[in-house]
Specification:
Chain A: It comes from Xanthomarina gelatinilytica. Chain A: It holds the Pfam family Fer2_3. Chain A: Its cofactor is [2Fe-2S] cluster; [3Fe-4S] cluster. Chain A: GO terms for molecular function: 2 iron, 2 sulfur cluster binding; electron transfer activity. The structure holds two protein chains of two kinds. Chain A is built from eight helices and seven strands, in the order ββαβββββααααααα. Chain A is elongated. The longest helix of chain A has 16 residues. In chain A, the strands form two sheets. In chain A, strands 2-1-5-3-4 form a five-stranded mixed sheet. In chain A, strands 6-7 form a two-stranded antiparallel sheet. By secondary structure, chain A is α+β, with helices and mostly antiparallel strands. In chain B, helix 1 packs across helix 2 and helix 7 packs antiparallel against helix 8. Chain B is built from eight helices and no strands. The longest helix of chain B is centred in the N-terminal third of the chain and has 31 residues. Chain B is mostly helical. The chains are: A alpha+beta, B mainly alpha. The interface between A and B is large, with 49 and 41 residues.
Chain lengths: 248, 225
């Protein structure tokens, strides 16, 4: 396959940046999207040009580091995958592919396609934890009975890898799907009840302070989420937040 | 409880509550307008009651005004905040791949509804306020004193083609707004459960049938006059 790539190049956080055209030839349809970028970078290095900076780590769809916005969609045109799981067979010979960083004021570009997603870390720090006795009397989590239905829902929410595709896909750059998954995974379990009130209030407060937009329920986040995190979690977080606000 | 309206979820909740109120009002408005198709007398009687009852005029009407203004102002405030949350737009964005046109363009359908509402107020509400509270005529009677004026005024208003066309377009935008707004309001107040699927169907029916009903009423009066 021969392709034209329109890639966002930006020297650093202060640079204006812009799209630059590249031609890649003899791309195998069995390559992953990141492997195709590796080939491009090898070619650029051989030509003494600056390679394209992009985030990646596990390349197994687990870490959530690869953060590319490909042809107008987070992680590209396929569903339920991260960019490393996107294969070139999803494209046709002669295609022009737009590759941009995840866009949000709360996700500033560091370089090229690499964005700073530490806003998610700060939201986690604000309440994404539980208190556990670690002084020698630690109770095994399995010793506490949990309703199967709740356990399943909590597990589904816990599969969120914090990649930020929800923010990138949302027309409002809202982080509600991510925050709601983190709130839900604890709200549904007995271990999470102790800090339930403070957790949702603090995490939502931090989310707002980071400059993410307001959710308008378009559902784009759910469609583009590589882990299929459901909008049910946002509804649950809304309930938890209102309950906590009335208490507090 | 303090500061709930300063949070993103609090604003969503307030937006949804005002939407519920307006959707209930719309249903009531439609029910009364429907009467005009079946019985001029019944329409006149109910219109006179609504236009002269103090509870409706001085309690419900101000609440309605507040609800309308709040919904629009909050809608614009949220839109401005949301636009600030992304400084640089995507060079290529395929919104249609993951969301409906209606959900992505609530601000535009809302803007058209606002324009329609201003015209609607100029057509019906301001003349009504003028007759009752400026000229002081609370009788609701025609100039010749032969019966109530409401039905006659309604038919007269729907005589020009341009106004009927404008109303039809206004209600199409209302339908587009409701197609996303109805279920979005339930999601915002945290109602996403086993009833959601059924509610989505009901929401679609509401969003299409109520505006369509208003269009039919306007057309009936235009062609019957």
């Amino acid at each position: 396959m021969n392709l034209t790539l329109k890639i966002w190049r930006q020297k650093n956080a202060n640079d204006k940046g812009g799209l630059v055209d590249y031609k890649v030839t003899d791309v195998s349809p069995d390559m992953s999207f990141l492997e195709m970028l590796d080939v491009l970078n090898e070619d650029l290095i051989n030509k003494n040009e600056e390679p394209v900076a992009f985030d990646h780590d596990c390349r197994e769809g687990i870490c959530g580091m690869c953060s590319l916005y490909i042809n107008g969609e987070a992680h590209g045109p396929d569903r339920g995958i991260t960019t490393c799981q996107l294969h070139m067979r999803m494209f046709k010979d002669g295609d022009t592919i737009y590759i941009e960083p995840f866009r949000a004021a709360a996700f500033p570009v560091i370089k090229d396609l690499v964005v700073d997603r530490s806003a998610f870390d700060r939201i986690q720090h604000a309440g994404g934890f539980i208190s556990v006795n670690t002084s020698g009397n630690t109770i095994d989590a399995n010793a506490i009975p949990v309703n199967k239905h709740d356990a399943d829902k909590a597990f589904d929410a816990a599969t969120c890898i914090g990649c930020g595709a929800c923010v990138a896909s949302c027309k409002n750059s809202s982080a509600m799907l991510f925050v709601s998954a983190k709130v839900s995974q604890f709200a549904l379990l007995p271990q999470g009840k102790i800090e339930a009130t403070d957790r949702v209030l603090n995490m939502v407060k931090q989310m707002d302070e980071e400059g993410f937009g307001n959710c308008t329920n378009t559902g784009a986040c759910e469609v583009e989420c590589p882990k299929g995190i459901s909008l049910e979690n946002i509804a649950r977080m809304n309930r938890e937040y209102l309950k906590a606000s009335l208490k507090g | 409880m303090s500061g709930i309206l300063n949070s993103s979820i609090g604003r969503k909740f307030a937006m949804a509550l005002s939407a519920f109120f307006l959707m209930i009002f719309l249903l009531q408005h439609f029910a009364i307008n429907s009467l005009s198709v079946f019985s001029a007398d019944a329409f006149n009687e109910v219109s006179h009651f609504m236009g002269t009852n103090w509870l409706i005029q001085f309690v419900m009407q101000p609440i309605l005004m507040f609800g309308v203004v709040f919904h629009f102002v909050m809608g614009f405030v949220l839109e401005i905040r949301n636009r600030k949350a992304r400084h640089i737009s995507y060079a290529k964005n395929n919104g249609a791949a993951n969301s409906t046109w209606m959900s992505r363009n609530m601000i535009y359908s809302g803007l058209f509804i606002l324009i329609f509402l201003i015209i609607h107020f100029l057509d019906f509400w301001f003349p009504e306020i003028n007759t009752k509270y400026i000229q002081g005529d609370m009788s609701g009677l025609l100039a010749d004193g032969e019966g109530y004026r409401y039905f006659e005024e309604l038919q007269h208003k729907f005589e020009p083609v341009w106004r009927v066309a404008l109303y039809c377009v206004g209600f199409v935008f209302l339908a587009l707004h409701l197609l996303h707004g109805f279920n979005s309001a339930f999601q915002s107040v945290g109602a996403n459960n086993k009833y959601t699927k059924g509610l989505k169907g009901f929401g679609k029916a509401y969003a299409i049938l109520i505006p369509l009903g208003f269009i039919v009423i306007a057309l009936v009066h235009h062609f019957n006059h």
